[in-house]
């Protein structure tokens, strides 16, 4: 981004209160990959001392939103990105810092071509949530759409 335009992380931190509440850190945000980190914060722990499931969901959903904005930000004048549905699986106990890495499940050009054809495209985003030791502690599958502006 330029010196005058905020980064996607800065934009989302400024406009999404939950991002600020959880102190999410934007490590990387590109159209190919978004990486966010949730610091270890006792106020957001669960009953076993790891990050609460709601905090992990918010981390993963925020990573998916960051990649959607990176990939389709140039389409915002004609469409609104919206999450359609999601599913999260908790695989292993997480403790400490957790990181969410999001990847798009369809090529950007394919999604934009559907939008160009007057359709409302849907596309998946896959998110892996990892612990500091690299083990996958959770996975999210989230489907997004670009709803054309009326």
From TrEMBL:
Family annotation (Gene3D superfamilies): Hotdog Thioesterase
Pfam family, one: DUF4442
InterPro entries, per database record: DUF4442, HotDog_dom_sf
Source taxon at top rank: Bacteria
Name assigned to this protein: DUF4442 domain-containing protein
UniProt organism field: Streptantibioticus parmotrematis
């Amino acid at each position: 981004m330029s010196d005058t335009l905020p980064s996607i992380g800065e934009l989302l931190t400024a406009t999404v209160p939950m991002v600020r509440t959880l102190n999410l850190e934007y490590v990387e945000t590109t159209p190919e990959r978004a990486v966010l980190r949730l610091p270890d914060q006792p106020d957001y722990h669960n009953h076993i001392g790891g990050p609460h499931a709601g905090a992990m969901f918010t981390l993963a959903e925020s990573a998916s939103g960051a990649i959607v904005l990176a990939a389709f930000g140039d389409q915002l004048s004609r469409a609104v990105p919206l999450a359609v549905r999601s599913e999260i699986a908790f695989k292993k106990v997480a403790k400490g810092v957790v990181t969410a890495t999001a990847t798009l499940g369809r090529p950007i050009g394919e999604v934009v071509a559907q939008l160009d054809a007057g359709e409302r495209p849907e596309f998946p985003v896959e998110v892996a949530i990892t612990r500091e030791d690299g083990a996958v502690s959770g996975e999210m599958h989230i489907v997004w759409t670009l709803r054309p502006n009326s």
